[in-house]
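User: Okay, second chain of the day. Same drill as before: sequence in, structure tokens out.
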Amino acid sequence: MLEPKTEIASSAPPTRLKWIGARVYTPHATAEMDRLAGLPLASFKSRAAAFLLDMVLVLVAYMPTMWFIKWLEVRSQANPHIDLVWDFHEISNVIFTVLYFGLTLYWGKGRTLGKRILGIRVVSLVHDHLTFWQSIERALGYGASFLEGGFGFIQYFTHPNRCCVHDRIAETIVIRERRDLIKD
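Assistant: Same drill. Structure tokens below.
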């Protein structure tokens, strides 16, 4: 078992000891959480409307893209038939949806097109801006929120900070946009 060093790091409070060869817990998110304290949280209605609007945009972008890809595959056939199906059992649908939500959230600095229109924004609880991985994690987390009949979305009403499962997975919250409080 490792013994604590007898000397205490000068920047650490006197109650923290450094362990030889071991990592120590650092509350890295505390400063960011303090900065976010008091921001107004987005309503369930605005979050749901933004999500539905984004899903319509996914379909609008998906259909011509997949039609073109399938057309390239069958164009040499004598009687080409293109059959497009939107089903989450199709891996291409899942990939397209995750990429849409993940990339638009990351490039939009916490706002997809639907969130921008509804005036809400996703913010990180642990970083000063959303990371690429947090954006992808949150997009993948929508699948977890849909499990068991959408119970992950219903948790909005039971969590003190109005977090759904995908928010907790990615360590994010959704706020009402107020430009004077949030930096880009």
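The chain is about 50% helix and 5% strand.

User: Thanks, on to the next one.
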